[in-house]
Amino acid sequence: MKYEAVIGLEIHAQLNSATKLFCDCPNRPGDEPNRNTCPICLWLPGALPHLSQEALEKATLACLALNCTIQPESAFDQKVYYYPDLPKGFQLSQHHKPLARNGWVDIVGEDGRIKRLRIHHIHMEEDVAKLIHETEGKTPISLVDFNRAGTPLIEIVSEADMRNPYEAMEYVKTLRGQLRYTGSAECSLEQGTLRVDANISLRPRGTDELNTKVEVKNMNSIRNVGDAIAYEIIRQTNCLEKGEPIVLHTRLWDPEKRVTSPMRGKFSGPCVPDPSVPGIVVTNDWLKEMQDRLPEMPGQKTERFLREYGLTPEEASNMSLERDLSEFFEAVVKHNLPPRKVASWMTIHLIPVLRDHSQTIRETLLSAERFAQLLSMLEKDMINAHAVKEVLPQLLSSDETPEEIVEKGRFRQVSDTTELEALIDRIIAEHPSDVEDFRNGNAKVIGFLMGLAMKASQGKANPKLLKEALTKRLSSIP
After folding, report:
1. pLDDT in tens, 174-206
2. HSE on the CB side for 167, CA within 13 Å?
3. Which of 206, 210, 267, 198 has its CA nearest to residue 235?
4. Is 383 helix (H, G, I), strand (E, B) or coil?
5. Mean pLDDT across the stretch 27-48?
6. What is the DSSP letter of 361?
7. pLDDT, tens digit, 9 for 90 and up, residues 373-390
């Protein structure tokens, strides 16, 4: 390629503290509009903000998890701009003195090598209100929901170290996992508690210059982050090849049309120290207390899983990605189940089901004990993999035991040789031409007949015994 992409990300993570950043209003996304407001949220005359200790602690844990250096002093500024979602005409943000600087995360690049991506700084700030655009008759209207106004955020500003969409996606994925481990943030792109803005510019390959960047917003999934960056690289390449200048501005990603479109010009207003919020002074003792509260992080857990459970690097990494799942994995293993098989069963069966239901393990009724019971039944050939797929989704929303669900749904595996042989005889009788193909050397027929037999048994036949019996029966036909 003639050009090289230079990519930096600005990521807003909403902290899950009980209250907002500067008042005691509940921090609850999704509540009825304008329910969680007060004079401070609405910035009524005489209202004075007071910084949430819990939000500060959660922000500090997040910074430490991303290998940042906590600054001895940080302070809030008035970031001035005028917009309907900002009642006081400015946003309280740490522009001049951020909470932390000089962090990093490691990713595995496309070439399989570890690449370190640097974080310039992390600062705290309040979120703005939410604009809701509707149409009443033929007249478009905009409504403002102030529930989100004052929600505590951290903004994580990376260095422009990324060179392609893959690296940006891995950065977001890794960073999200680190933040979730601390318990400071839920980090859901789909629900808006994690928001990613990408700054993309192009330069001639082999040079170090930084050219005009374009900011892209509205990416509500990791895949959309990659797709939006890829599109913007192509768009800017075409502009440069046509001799068209790249103009500093903000664009929106349209996930349906899969294009970026202009949103507004890029500007920055005045940013002055705020006199109403005292500065933050971090003592060594308090910082040590925060460091002691930091949990075992994914990298450390991966190394321990390799050492203690004999997992492969890929299995250990998969089991360490999310804190809830890693703790669930260890709780299941304690029920005397083989660690590698537990990792495999979780990867193949449990994680896809959670993804399909858009749930975390905490949001379900599935306990480690009940999952271990299900796997023990599979291990003892009482059920097969097909039955696991049927039973597992029910365990997410039911407190019944796996045994009760298996019996109620008649999912118990058929291992009786007499039943299996009768099933095989029926399949063979119904498909004489396929049997003839097998006799003529077409071994693939076994797979086809196996599929028919499993379907006829409604997935209850023991696959191992069925295949052995079917192979033996076909081989005995003269």
Report:
1. 999 999 999 999 999 888 899 999 999 999 988
2. 25
3. 198
4. coil
5. 91
6. G
7. 999 888 887 877 778 888
Question: 145 pairs with which residues across the strands?
Answer: 130
Residue 448's pLDDT is 80
Q: Tell me if 290 is assigned to some domain.
A: no
426-468 pLDDT tens trace: 877 777 777 777 777 777 777 787 777 777 676 667 776 767 7
pTM: 0.82
Burial-class residue 221 by CB neighbours within 10 Å (0-12, 13-18, 19+): middle
Cβ-contact 453, 427 below 8 angstroms = yes
- Termini Cα distance of the chain: 64
Q: What is the DSSP string of 83-143?
A: -TT-TTSEEEEEEEE-SEEEEEEEEE-TTS-EEEEEEEEEEEEEPP-EEEEEEETTEEEEE
Q: Mapping DSSP to helix (H, G, I), strand (E, B) and coil, where does residue 406 land? A: helix
Q: Is the pLDDT at 82 greater than 70, yes or no? A: yes
Range of the domain at 87: 3-281
- Report the helix count and the strand count for the chain, using DSSP H and E: 16, 15
The answer to whether position 427 is within a domain reads yes
Are 328 and 270 found together in one domain?
A: no
Residues 444 and 400 grouped into a single domain: no
Residues 199 and 312 grouped into a single domain: no
Range ranked top by mean pLDDT from 88-92, 169-173, 361-365: 169-173
Per-residue CA distances from 231 to 223, 255, 295, 420 (Å)? 12, 11, 38, 55
Residue 289 within a domain = no
Residues with Cβ within 8 Å of residue 131, at least 6 apart in sequence: 84, 85, 142, 143, 144, 145
pLDDT in the model for residue 419: 66
Contact 34, 146 (CB under 8 A): yes
Residue with tokens 């500060």: 56
Cα→Cα distances 463→91, 298, 409, 444, 455, Å: 63, 37, 19, 16, 11
**DSSP run (H or E) holding 402:** helix 402-409
Is residue 42 domain-shared with residue 182, that is, in the same domain? Answer: yes
DSSP state of 347: I
